Amino acid sequence: MFNKTYKVIGVMSGTSLDGIDLAAVEFTVLDHKWSFKILEKETISYTENWVNQLKEAVTFSEEKLTQLNENYTILLGGIIKYFIKKYRLEDIDAVCSHGHTILHQPQNRFTLQIGNLPNIAKIIGAKVVCDFRVQDVQMGGQGAPLVPIGDRILFSEYDYCLNLGGFSNVSFEEKNNRIAFDISPVNTVLNFYANKLGLDYDNKGEISRSGNLNSDLLNELNALEYYSKPFPKSLGFEFVKEIILPLIENYSIAIEDKMHTFTEHIAQQTANALTSKKGKLLVTGGGAYNTFLMERMQFHLPTMEIIIPNAEILEFKEALIFALLGVLKLRNEINVLSSVTGAKKNHSSGVIFNE
């Protein structure tokens, strides 16, 4: 007999490297209907040293990656332990942690999220559910996106759920199947150029707004093969490093112009990705704070109702949903949809480590 309520902690670190999101969540399930309450939440920023390591890790040797994984597991475990202590969280059923993606090559049946080593449960002193992507990739899936099952269960009142993080991804129902895929890079590129100007990010998109559109660059970006591929499909930082940045760097134009043009590219690809151009679109992730990007999206989707939720959902939706994925794994229920990832079947993914 399964519980009707669960008290868990969801932990997420995204490719935009703005920190580790932690959310203590209480889930209630009655007659197969789920509800949630976020009890506590916090984002712990990375040190400059960790940001640099995580950015560069895509080029690390296997030996160096192994050491990074060990070090990151210690870091992550310590941060989760601090969160539990700070907010005096008791009777936690599990910590449900995504880890941090370093390599994502589903075409090679390989994906690596660091911070998911077995000793994390001992560091925290609690049961841990983690490593949600590996099983799906081994089953021929993309291993991403994983959030759509949570969109279906917790946010079904919206026609589309769009997340704007390091990359953008969207999920929606089509013929009783949940469809989802990565659309394009977002903050992985915009933050890269903001960093060149000595800033962590482009506040409200003001730098991008000040630039000019370069039509040739925009056309080249829009013509990239990925955008014409059918779903399921997903993106990793390799795509940014090997394809996007070299393409942009071919243009000797101001950084502001590069950012303006790339913002327009994101908006156009988002509009292209939605099968219907009307309905309710829920937007979460750090990119929702980019006013200029949101204006350009609304321009290309004039009949869509774009909804930006309160800060709690906007910033912690992915941590919330990974908390749910962990609970579904504990119940041995489906938490990854084959219609989304392309795996051979729906399945219950993740590994469970006991303290």
- Determine the mean pLDDT: 96
What is the molecular shape? globular
| Main sheet properties | 7 strands, mixed
The N- and C-terminal alpha carbons lie at a distance of 23 Å
Number of strands: 12
User: What is the radius of gyration computed over CA atoms, rounded to a whole number of angstroms?
Assistant: 19 Å
As a percent range, the share of strand residues is: 15-25%
**Low-confidence region ranges:** none
Helix content: 25-40%
Secondary structure category: alpha/beta
Count the helices. How many?
13
Give the H and E element order. EEEHHEEHEHHEEEHHHHHEHEHHE
Question: What do these coordinates show?
Answer:
There is one protein chain. The chain is an alpha/beta fold. 40% of the residues lie in helices and 25% in strands. The protein has helices at residues 48-56, 62-86, 119-124, 134-138, 148-154, 187-196, 206-210, 215-222, 237-249, 255-273, 291-300, 311-330, 338-341; strands spanning 5-13, 20-30, 33-44, 94-105, 110-114, 128-130, 160-164, 167-174, 177-185, 279-284, 304-307, 351-353. Strands 1, 2, 3, 4, 5, 6 and 12 form a 7-stranded mixed β-sheet that branches. Helix 6 packs antiparallel against helix 10 (255-273) and helix 10 (255-273) packs across helix 11 (291-300). The mean pLDDT is 96.
List the helices and strands and how they pair.
Layout: E1 5-13, E2 20-30, E3 33-44, H1 48-56, H2 62-86, E4 94-105, E5 110-114, H3 119-124, E6 128-130, H4 134-138, H5 148-154, E7 160-164, E8 167-174, E9 177-185, H6 187-196, H7 206-210, H8 215-222, H9 237-249, H10 255-273, E10 279-284, H11 291-300, E11 304-307, H12 311-330, H13 338-341, E12 351-353
Parallel strand pairs: 1-4, 4-6, 7-10, 10-11
Antiparallel strand pairs: 1-2, 2-3, 4-5, 6-12, 7-8, 8-9
Helix pairs in contact: 6-10, 8-10, 10-11
